[in-house]
Write a structure and sequence with these properties.
Blueprint: H1 26-39, H2 55-75, H3 78-82, E1 85-93, E2 99-100, H4 102-115, E3 116-121, E4 124-130, E5 133-146, E6 153-165, E7 171-180
Parallel strand pairs: 1-7
Antiparallel strand pairs: 1-2, 3-5, 4-5, 5-6, 6-7
Length: about 190
C-alpha cells in the first residue's frame, strides 16, 4: 500500500523531498487536492439568532439606540430620558464642567425640561460599533421653547455619543459630548 505511505508514523519524509515533482506523487496530490477543495468550499450560512452574540442583530440594536435616544430626548420626559443612561454616564457640554453620574445628569436634564420644551434633530454623521461599545458622531438642530412662554431658541452644533451594551443587552448612553458649531452670541 505505497499510496497510503503518507499516513504512516513516523512520517516518511522521502515523500516530500523526492526528486520527483509533487504533482507526480498520486497520494500526496490527492491529499493536497482534497484539502484545497475543502478550503475553497463556501461557508455554510449562519442560522438567524436572537442572541447578543449575533453581530448583525447587535449592529441593528445599536443603531436603534440612537433612534430611541432622540425619541426620549424629544419626549421631554425625565424618566424616559434617564432610562437611556448608564449609571456612570457623563455629559460634556461646551463651555461647562462635565456632569458625572446618572443622578447628576438627571438633575441637570430635569432643570432643562422644567425650563424648556425641547426638540432635537440629530442626523448621524458617523456610527462605529466595536464589541459592547458604539461611537456616534452627529450634528444637531435644537429648538427650545420656554415653558413659561416666549420665543423659541434654535441652535445648531455637533455631538459625540458613546453607547454601551449592558448586561441586559440594552444599549445605553455612557457619554454624550456636544456644543455649538458657531461662536457664542454676543451678550
Amino acid at each position: 500500500m505505497a499510496g497510503l505511505a503518507i499516513f504512516r508514523y513516523p512520517l516518511d519524509y522521502s515523500l516530500f523531498f523526492s526528486p520527483e515533482p509533487l504533482f507526480m506523487r498520486p497520494a500526496l496530490a490527492l491529499v493536497l487536492l482534497a484539502g484545497l477543495s475543502l478550503a475553497c468550499q463556501p461557508a455554510a450560512p449562519k442560522a438567524a439568532s436572537t442572541s447578543a452574540g449575533d453581530p448583525n442583530l447587535t449592529d441593528a440594536e445599536a443603531h436603534k439606540a440612537h433612534e430611541h435616544y432622540v425619541r426620549v430626548i424629544n419626549s421631554n420626559n425625565i424618566d424616559s430620558l434617564t432610562s437611556m443612561f448608564t449609571d456612570d454616564v457623563v455629559f460634556m457640554a461646551a463651555g461647562a464642567k462635565p456632569i458625572v453620574g446618572k443622578a447628576a445628569v438627571r438633575a441637570w436634564a430635569d432643570e432643562y425640561y422644567k425650563a424648556f420644551t425641547t426638540h432635537w434633530d440629530k442626523p448621524v454623521q458617523e456610527f462605529v460599533i466595536s464589541g459592547d461599545y458604539a461611537f456616534e458622531r452627529y450634528s444637531y438642530t435644537s429648538t427650545d421653547t420656554p415653558v413659561g412662554g416666549g420665543k423659541p431658541v434654535t441652535d445648531t452644533g455637533w455631538g459625540f455619543v458613546v453607547y454601551h451594551r449592558e448586561s441586559d443587552g440594552g444599549w445605553r448612553v455612557a457619554r454624550d459630548a456636544f456644543g455649538p458649531d458657531h461662536p457664542p452670541a454676543a451678550q
